[in-house]
Amino acid sequence: MSFDLREAATGAADPATVGGYGDHPERVGFFTDTSVCIGCKACEVACKEWNTLAEDGLNFTGMSYDNSVGLGADTWRHVAFIEQPRQLGRQETYLAPTELPGDLKRTAAGRTPVSLGLPASVPPDGVVGTVREMDFRWLMSSDVCKHCTYAACLDVCPTGSLFRTEFGTVVVQEDICNGCGYCVPACPYGVIDKRPTDGRVAKCTMCYDRLSVGQEPACAKSCPTDSIQFGELDELRERAAARVLALHAEGVDSARLYGADPNDGVGGAGAFFLLLDEPEVYGLPPDPVVTTRDLPAMWRRVGLAAAGLLVGLIAVTVSGASAPTRARR
Amino acid sequence: MNRSDVPAGTATMTDVRLDRAPDLPAERDAVVGSAGRPGRRQRGERLMVPKAEFRSYYGRPVLNGPTWQAPDIAGYLFLGGLAGASSTLAAAAELTGRPALARGLKAGAATAIAGSLYSLVHDLGRPERFVNMLRVVKVTSPMSIGSWLLAGYAPMAIAAAGSAVTGRLPVPGRLATIGAALLGPAVAAYTGALISNTAVPAWHEGHREMPLLFVGSAAASAGGLGLLVGPGAESGPARRAALLGAVAELTMTRRLEQRLGPLAEPLQQDTGGALIRAGKVLSATAALTLALGGRNRKAGVAAGVALLAGSLCTRFGIFHAGLASARDPKYTVGPQRERLAARDRAAKEPT
Q1: Which of A111, B45, B196, B344 would you label with A74, given CA atoms 20 to 30 Å apart?
Q2: Does B34 contact chain A (CB < 8 Å)?
Q3: Does the pTM exceed 0.90?
Q4: Nearest by CB: A185 against B18, B199, B234
Q5: pLDDT at A191
Q6: Do B125 and A80 touch (CB under 8 A)?
Q7: pLDDT at B135
């Protein structure tokens, strides 16, 4: 393949440099460490508040505590909840035998405790004892736009509405987008979507307005456990590699990084993750590839097909060219 | 919950090993398998090999499916192909002394491209901003290249038809005819890259066949149109174009289904599958009628209608098959898992 159509074809180059910025800040990104996510959804709320995103359906899905289902035009952060009957590393899953606090005992005097059915609450018999072998782990992960090095949405946008910022992120210009919707099926992660109400597409901007004034994005700012870490991408990748090693040493050998490899199908994600199970369990594609990687091959086929059609249609006309002439004579 | 195969003393210490145990009971796990069709479950027995079952997040799609409306975009795939191939066939007919066939095809092409432009603008979320399509030229976006192609082709196709129907301005009409004939095949072919250049599994993985399939379908529909609008004495090129196109369309559809393997399911099931089957039957019947019926006018008209309907069904079928493949996570996860497994095998192989 002699020519490569992707925006950042050289691989090693910084996307902002390839995007035409001479002097630009370091590429920034998110490292989402799902091993410390507590599923509080502060990121979802902070994102909605800061970016004034509309309500996107007040539904009860029955999918654990997840009622926002997935990323979309008005959901730029999405917390996934996965319940699994297995232990997490060497965590102590039993409830320690404890005494009820004195004041609680006094107020509850003479009454039988009733279980509300909450996990890790008092057992139904009211006796707080030891529960061993509680094989249960709850995976939580806050998903977001990956701000790919090779961004399919950006490549396919026919209006130039999607653009690369000086921070290496990918942002939609709302005043340009005409709602053609090409970026929606182009995204290998199912991030960007069209708003039915206003006809344009929308996705995470990594809080471009906040970055421009030296502030971190709203989701990272609001994360109480630092599960969402914001910073310069190179530094985040180092930090993430160290964190995986630490978790492996702790016995959590299912910990792995997702999207941190600059040699993957999207050239490395600007927002990458530490996951505790396979990516597809979190609704992420296991091996995403930017669709424009195959575009040179597609264009060659288009050229071949168009030439074939031209030649074929001339051939079928010329091959019998004498027939009508003869008929007229 | 059967844990008898875990040594008793290590029950609370084997957590790390259990992390990847394949025999964990599934009742509290997030639902795995495709939407509405849970895969087979096995409990209590330790499997010697891990299950090959694919996993997903509650059966939810990984991708956000296309927001395109079928009547607009699948309709455009058909109309754009019909217009492009008709313009080329019209010019060839005109230059070989078949004016009536040429006139009919030009009028058909102009009507089809006008319908295409309406559909394309109608499908935009902000139709009033359609002109933003001509803000930039991007070779990475088949939609951008297509917009420029249409911007060049559509005025010429419409001018050629106007000149042919009214008989005015013959010289500009002739120039427009030739211009439209040269751009027509590109208009008919680029839509293959348009839909393949997405993450939609059935479209993307079919990128090798899609442009050839689409020009075959376009030639078949243009031939069909020629059989309807052209007089019997001039119908030779239309008949041969129809035959050639129908054979190409059928061959490429078959090759697409063979090469996609498990990913061909959406091309064979539900709405997409039914439409593609209907397209095959219509195109094959029309081709047979033309091959056997000779120059019979009635047979030609019937075949022409069947060819147009067949091409229409094929385009809508491929459109719907793409939507179905984006909706079910197994078509996204399955092939990607296989790709990763193949890469692992290649890495382990001694060189």
Answers
A1: B196
A2: no
A3: no
A4: B199
A5: 97
A6: no
A7: 95
Q: Is the dihedral of CA A67, A72, A73, A75 positive or negative?
A: positive
Query: Could you tell me if A46 lies within 8 Å of chain B, comparing CB atoms?
Result: no
Nearest to B204 by CA among A10, A305, A288, A178: A288
Comparing CA positions, the residue from B150, B160, B156, B244 lying closest to residue A308 is: B244
Its ipTM equals: 0.85
Token pair, residue B270, equals 């539900």
Please check whether residue A72 touches B, CB under 8 A: yes
Chain A closest-CA separation from residue B141 CA (Å): 4
| pLDDT tens-digit series, residues A257-267 | 999 999 999 99
- 8 Å CB contact of B193 and A306: no
**Whole-angstrom Cα distance, residue A205 to residue A7?**
19
pLDDT above 90 coverage of chain A, percent:
69
- Return residues 207-266 of A near B (CB < 8 Å): 251-254
Other CB atoms closer than 10 Å to residue A100's CB: what's the count? 13
| Lowest mean pLDDT across A101-115, A116-130, B39-53, B233-247 | B39-53
A-B Cβ pairs (cutoff 8 Å, strict): 322
User: Which residue of A180, A254, A289, A326 to mutate against B (max B Cβ within 10 Å)?
Assistant: A180
Sequence spans of domains, chain B:
70-331
The Cα–Cα gap between B108 and B96 comes to 19
CATH of B70-331, one of 3.40.50.10610, 3.40.640.10, 3.40.50.300, 1.20.1630.10: 1.20.1630.10
Q: Does A84 touch chain B (CB under 8 A)?
A: yes
CB within 8 Å: B55 and A324: no
> Cα–chain-centroid distance for residue B44?
45
Closest chain A CA to residue B218: A309
Query: How many Cβ atoms from other residues are within 10 Å of residue A158's Cβ?
Result: 26
pLDDT in tens, B121-174: 999 999 999 999 999 999 999 999 999 999 999 999 999 999 999 999 999 999
What integer pLDDT is reported at residue A131 of this predicted model? 52
CB contact under 8 A, A321 and B212: no
- Contacts of A117-126 with CB under 8 Å at 24 or more apart are A120/A95
Instruction: Say yes or no for a CB contact (<8 Å) between B68 and A313.
Output: no
DSSP state of A53: P
**Does the pLDDT value for residue A92 go beyond 70?**
no
d(C-alpha A10, C-alpha A3), whole Å: 11
Pairing of strands A271-275, A28-33: parallel
What pLDDT is recorded for position B2?
A: 39
Look at residue B24 in the predicted model and tell me its pLDDT: 45
SS3 call for A221: helix
CB contact under 8 A, A324 and B123: no
DSSP letter, residue B132? G
pLDDT, tens digit (0-9, with 9 covering 90-100), for A177-230: 999 999 999 999 999 999 999 999 999 999 999 999 999 999 999 999 999 999
The encoded tokens of residue B213 equal 């399939």
Cβ contact A87–B241 (<8 Å):
no
Give the gap in angstroms from C-alpha B227 to the nearest C-alpha of chain A.
14
Contacts B93 to A, Cβ<8 Å = 317
